[in-house]
Specification:
The chain has 208 residues and is mainly α. It contains ten helices and no strands.
Length: 208
């Protein structure tokens, strides 16, 4: 909770722009948890330093601009981006190969699933852009749909727990565990759909 308190102080002093910049840094792979950043934005709204509904909008903007920036950098520079120092810290060649393997298995669904897997987002978005596996529009729609689920959850949680830090800490832990479970459920659902599709294709009669 120490990080949360520092972020609350920073955001209370600097307002929406500080939240937006912090979320851009999250998207760039800086070791700053996106969920805690969004909760801190909700807390300052709950303490009267802003509107919670505006904060949700700022949160969505910061998350999507940050994600889109990583995708577009990957799209423009391709595999050369792996040589950049700040990228190399979050996307080693081994991890790049592993993310590519996941794309082979799950396809474009990775764009949606990645938002619920902390530590994976930046790597997935850079890889998607650099390998040209998905158009920017499709990426933005899938990532945006996932953000419409996750961002309001964290911001409104911070808003509701602004005056009760024990309750807030409990629900942050539950929320983080819940997102991991949701991510696992989404991967399982994707595998089931893929298996059913493969089975249906295998059962279809060939041309006579």
């Amino acid at each position: 909770m120490e990080l949360l308190e520092r972020l609350v102080t920073l955001f209370a002093e600097n307002g929406y722009i500080a939240v937006f910049i912090a979320l851009l840094l999250c998207g760039a792979g800086v070791p700053l948890p996106e969920d805690i950043t969004l909760v801190a934005g909700g807390v300052i709204a709950g303490l009267g330093y802003g509107s919670v509904h505006v904060m949700v909008g700022v949160g969505l903007a910061g998350v999507l601009v940050g994600d889109a920036g990583m995708f577009l950098l990957g799209h423009h520079f391709g595999a050369r981006i792996l040589q950049w120092r700040f990228v190399a810290r979050v996307l080693t060649p081994e991890r790049y190969a592993k993310v590519q393997e996941k794309f082979e298995r799950y396809g474009n669904r990775m764009m949606f699933i990645a938002r619920f897997l902390p530590g994976m987002r930046t790597a997935v978005f850079i890889t998607a852009g650099s390998t040209h596996r998905v158009s920017f529009l499709r990426f933005f729609l899938l990532d945006g749909l996932a953000a419409l689920i996750s961002v309001p959850v964290w911001v409104y949680l911070g808003y509701l727990g602004a005056d009760n830090h024990e309750w807030l800490a409990l629900w942050i832990r539950r929320g983080q565990n819940g997102l991991w479970l949701l991510g696992g459920a989404l991967i399982l659902a994707a595998l089931v759909l893929w298996w059913r599709h493969k089975r249906r294709v295998a059962c279809e009669p060939g041309p006579h």
